[in-house]
């Protein structure tokens, strides 16, 4: 599209003010083409809407209305169709072949069994992918719209193939591929390499076209004046999405609007729903924990704010809102942090570092009660409450990621003896509130609540990429640390530059999943459930839980055998007091093991 815009402007120098205008209109045309001719669209775009959507795209000016109306008429009257090139197969022959279908081995998610797969026929019908189990009695047909396929994974690399111990050797793995959609994978193995090649190439083109159309919608939205965009977006959020949150949150329109940032007036409502209350605390919990706070809780809150916020607040006027003694927001912050410590103490947990940053960010958009519920749930269930082994796991993965993506910066850290542990824990623990401007941080939080912890890693990596030129100029370790502690003062860091960098490097992000040993497909807002703690989706975590379960089973058997021996031995009958004491010791041990066996996402520290 960039090359097309450049070439078009060279050939037609008097139509657009610059190449960006042609680029934006090009994507707007793609969006219109989908809107006008897709069977999935019910409420089609009208000509006045198309003209209005493209206001101000010509370097701030409007394009001639007759030009836009002519473009609209041309696209509506004749659909733009992209050709599909498959070596010796013509498009019509290819489609006939795809419609007839192919028989694959389809693997199931369950544990390894005698028959881990069944014969499955796969075929295309207009805009849908269809398949059926050939070994089932009824051979019930299943379908999914093609535009719901999110990803094509070539090779035997998904969790389903791993569970079924499918050979990854080129002779076997090369015949395998998986389609990701709707929170699950369709895991298939073809009979020949040609079948695998044709089907995967077709599905990859389907996914690319869907992504192109989604990108076109994003471009068209950004082309609108921001005031108009947020006015329209606010109405959609308030009137359509929020009233029907559970059904609307995973729809493509919501995902798209979410990426652009939630309107600030509605951000509190969206955050409250996105975080939810899985811990079941309820609105009254804040008052009860405020009443339970001790003098030590309040003193700790003062120390936490002084140590964390005031240190940054001295160079950030924005955070003076919470550090100035004359500000009512400081009283709310101290009250919230003290109540959160009371809650942590009731759970026999220590409050993690950087909680003041999280509390301050929530108070900008939520009242004290809702902020408490959100903060307590985030500390309990998100990555924010990691244990030491989780921290080490993240740092090791980050080190691999940095060496591959930003080798010069990784070497700089080594040369000046600045470990990632000096930077990343604070960035992660504060969700970048400690280093970014608050308005930019708010949009990062928006997307974090949409995509989970993985987005936070994307944002941190791109932030490091933007800061690399300044970091490479640092001449001392202190200067190097300062660059990353105060990114808000860098001229290279802005909302536009950060999110442009995140979007530009989106294609490479799937490689990062290997660094974090993530099971595919990664949970997201579009699939059921967002992964706020990547450790819980890590294959290492699953292995640790399996080993722990095996150890618990073995220990329980040993206890039962010992008890049986005691009961059966002459003269060893237990008195009721001795039995109670033994049972008490065993219960305490079981509780202790259960506590240490809780998934790490449920632990504060």
UniProtKB/TrEMBL annotation:
Stretches for region Disordered: 549-590
InterPro entries assigned: PH-like_dom_sf, PH_domain, Rab-GAP-TBC_dom, Rab-GAP_TBC_sf, Sec7_C_sf, Sec7_dom, Sec7_dom_sf
Bias kind Basic and acidic residues: ranges: 579-590
Gene3D superfamilies named in the record: Arf Nucleotide-binding Site Opener,domain 2, Pleckstrin-homology domain (PH domain)/Phosphotyrosine-binding domain (PTB), Ypt/Rab-GAP domain of gyp1p, domain 1, Ypt/Rab-GAP domain of gyp1p, domain 3
GO biological process, alphabetically ordered: regulation of ARF protein signal transduction
GO molecular function list: guanyl-nucleotide exchange factor activity
Name the UniProt record assigns to this protein: Rab-GAP TBC domain-containing protein
All residue ranges annotated as the SEC7 domain in the record: 3-78
PROSITE patterns: SEC7 (PS50190), TBC_RABGAP (PS50086)
Organism: Haptolina ericina
Domain Rab-GAP TBC: 261-452
């Amino acid at each position: 599209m960039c090359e097309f815009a450049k070439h078009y402007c060279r050939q037609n120098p008097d139509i657009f003010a610059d190449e960006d205008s042609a680029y934006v209109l090009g994507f707007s045309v793609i969006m219109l083409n989908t809107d006008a001719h897709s069977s999935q669209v019910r409420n089609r775009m009208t000509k006045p809407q198309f003209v209005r959507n493209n206001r101000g795209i010509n370097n701030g000016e409007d394009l001639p209305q007759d030009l836009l109306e002519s473009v609209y008429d041309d696209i509506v009257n004749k659909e733009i169709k992209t050709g599909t090139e498959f070596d010796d197969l013509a498009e019509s022959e290819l489609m006939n072949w795809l419609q007839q279908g192919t028989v694959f081995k389809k693997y199931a998610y369950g544990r390894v069994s005698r028959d881990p797969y069944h014969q499955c026929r796969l075929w295309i019908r207009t805009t849908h992918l269809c398949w059926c189990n050939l070994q089932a009695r009824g051979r019930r047909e299943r379908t999914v719209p093609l535009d719901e396929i999110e990803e094509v994974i070539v090779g035997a690399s998904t969790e389903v193939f791993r569970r079924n111990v499918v050979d990854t050797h080129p002779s076997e793995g090369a015949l395998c591929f998986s389609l990701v959609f709707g929170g699950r994978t369709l895991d298939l193995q073809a009979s020949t390499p040609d079948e695998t090649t044709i089907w995967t190439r077709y599905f990859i083109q389907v996914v690319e076209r869907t992504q192109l159309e989604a990108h076109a919608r994003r471009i068209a939205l950004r082309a609108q004046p921001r005031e108009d965009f947020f006015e329209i977006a606010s109405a959609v959020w308030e009137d359509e999405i929020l009233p029907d949150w559970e059904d609307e949150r995973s729809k493509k329109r919501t995902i798209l609007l979410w990426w652009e940032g939630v309107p600030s007036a509605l951000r509190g409502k969206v955050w409250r729903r996105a975080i939810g209350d899985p811990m079941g605390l309820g609105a009254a919990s804040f008052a009860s924990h405020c009443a339970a706070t001790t003098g030590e809780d309040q003193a700790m809150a003062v120390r936490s704010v002084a140590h964390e916020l005031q240190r940054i607040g001295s160079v950030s006027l924005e955070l003076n809102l919470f550090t100035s003694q004359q500000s009512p927001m400081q009283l709310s912050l101290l009250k919230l942090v003290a109540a959160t410590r009371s809650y942590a103490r009731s759970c026999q947990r220590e409050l993690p570092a950087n909680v003041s940053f999280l509390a301050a960010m929530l108070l900008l958009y939520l009242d004290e009660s809702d902020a408490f519920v959100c903060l307590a749930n985030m500390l309990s269930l998100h990555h924010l409450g990691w244990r030491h082994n989780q921290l080490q796991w993240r740092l090791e993965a980050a080190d691999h990621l940095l060496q591959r993506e930003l080798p010069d910066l990784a070497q700089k850290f080594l040369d000046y003896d600045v470990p990632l542990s000096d930077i990343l824990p604070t960035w992660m623990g504060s969700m970048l509130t400690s280093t970014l401007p608050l308005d930019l941080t708010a949009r990062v939080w928006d997307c974090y609540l949409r995509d989970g912890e993985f987005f936070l890693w994307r944002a941190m990596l791109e932030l490091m990429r933007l800061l690399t030129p300044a970091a490479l100029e640092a001449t001392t370790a202190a200067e190097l640390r300062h660059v990353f502690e105060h990114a808000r003062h860098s001229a290279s860091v802005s909302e536009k530059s950060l999110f442009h960098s995140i979007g530009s490097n989106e294609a490479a992000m799937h490689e990062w999943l290997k660094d974090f040993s993530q099971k595919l497909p990664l949970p997201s807002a579009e699939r059921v459930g967002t992964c706020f703690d990547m450790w819980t989706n890590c294959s290492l975590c699953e292995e640790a839980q399996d080993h722990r379960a095996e150890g618990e089973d073995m220990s329980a058997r040993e206890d039962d055998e010992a008890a049986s021996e005691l009961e059966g031995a002459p003269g060893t009958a237990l008195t009721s007091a001795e039995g109670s004491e033994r049972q008490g010791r065993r219960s305490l041990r079981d509780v202790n093991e259960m506590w240490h066996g809780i998934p790490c996402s449920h632990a504060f520290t």
